UniProtKB/TrEMBL annotation:
This is Urease accessory protein UreJ. Keywords: Membrane, Signal, Transmembrane, Transmembrane helix. The chain crosses the membrane at residues 51-67, 74-93, 99-117, 124-141, 153-176, 183-201. It comes from the Bacteria. Residues 1-25 form the signal peptide. InterPro entries: HupE_UreJ.
Length: 204
């Protein structure tokens, strides 16, 4: 599997932006999805919130940086995240609820950032399981935001399209930095972890 080369300045800017995400960003409550949305609304939603953006990019980055070689193992975590995100959203649309949604989302950022900073290697199934559990809670939050909207499925389709795009961007950027720019990847991971820690403190 080959990923396109990302120009070094552009890659650096993307990582610095990810690592510098403010700790004052609130979890989902800070940027609610329109009740009556569209495909475009759903597509823009993950791009408009630091928690969504950080989580989805971090999954792709970690997958590329921790993989031993190109191949299917690169896709275990991103595919699991997208699939369980969809499952959680469907459950949320059907009224499933849990008080652990916000803490789990914040925890996913904290742990995801630590995984990215450490470049910890895990077997594909284990990575898929760990990432998928947190993605389920991201999906539940989305489902509740979409509940009652007349265009819920269109909005969800847009959200999944943006999720896939962000995963691919993370994979491409991570692959570019496998042999250079290790400090930049670690800085980005530290930034994501700090964002998650800040959100957990806000929820305490």
């Amino acid at each position: 599997m080959h990923f396109p080369r990302i120009p070094r300045p552009a890659s650096a800017m993307a990582f610095l932006a990810l690592g510098a995400m403010g700790s004052n960003a609130c979890a989902h409550g800070g940027h609610p999805m329109p009740v009556y949305g569209s495909f475009f609304d759903g597509f823009m939603h993950p791009l408009s919130g630091p928690d969504h953006l950080a989580a989805m990019l971090a999954v792709g980055l970690w997958s590329a940086l921790s993989a031993r070689r190109a191949g299917a193992q690169l896709l275990w975590a991103p595919a699991s995240f997208a699939a369980l995100l969809l499952a959680g959203a469907v459950l949320g649309l059907r009224g499933a609820a849990t008080a652990a949604v916000e803490p789990m989302i914040a925890t996913s950022l904290l742990l995801g950032g630590l995984l990215l900073a450490s470049r910890l290697r895990m077997p594909g199934p284990a990575a898929a399981l760990g990432v998928g559990v947190f993605a389920l809670f991201h999906g539940l939050a989305h489902g509740h935001e979409l509940a009652g909207g007349g265009s819920a499925w269109q909005t969800l389709a847009g959200m999944l399209a943006a999720t896939a795009l962000l995963h691919c961007a993370g994979l491409a950027a991570g692959w570019t930095l496998r042999r250079r720019g290790a400090w930049l990847a670690r800085a980005a991971g530290a930034g994501v972890a700090a964002l998650g820690a800040a959100q957990l403190l806000q929820l305490a």
